[in-house]
Amino acid sequence: MHLNIPTILTLSRIAIIPFFVLFYYLPIKESNLICTVLFVVAGITDWLDGFIARRFNMMSRFGAFLDPVADKLTVAVVLILLVDRNPTPYPDLLMAIPAAIIIGREITISALREWMAEIGEGTKVAVSWVGKVKTAAQLVALPMMIYREPLFGNIPVAEIGFYLLYLSAALTLWSMYTYLKCAWPALKRSANDS
Length: 194
Prior knowledge:
The chain is mainly alpha-helical. It is built from 6 helices and no strands. Helix 1 (5-25) runs antiparallel to helix 2.
């Protein structure tokens, strides 16, 4: 297997995860800042690997497989850690709900995409604009909740991130409905063939 620059960037995103977990639990004052920087760096590498792959025609099947895996691993780990150490004044259950929705959707849609590809209908579950907006809301919400300290003394960063996470969870349900609606004819045919 030949590792090109986009794939190395994707692998670096996965390699950041253990360091993120370590710094998240280290009892040092700057842990939230370090974790926020690590998450933002992971986000930049996500954009950069896609840009380089498209711009310089360095796309590979392995990279296409690995990129969403790295994204989902990063988001799932961050959500689990945020549930464990809820940075908001809201009850832990309210933190667990959007985390469960987002992680559950990622597992469901990943399995659906894989199954649809196997039956030759993978293009019916392509990324939609709702999914892109959901991802954007997530990528703003999560670093705000990781950082968790008020900005300029009174801007409640964790709380704003919390509301954006709920927006992301709502968009997650909407995009999952859209994917399932597109895949429904194939799912129905498959159920009838069984």
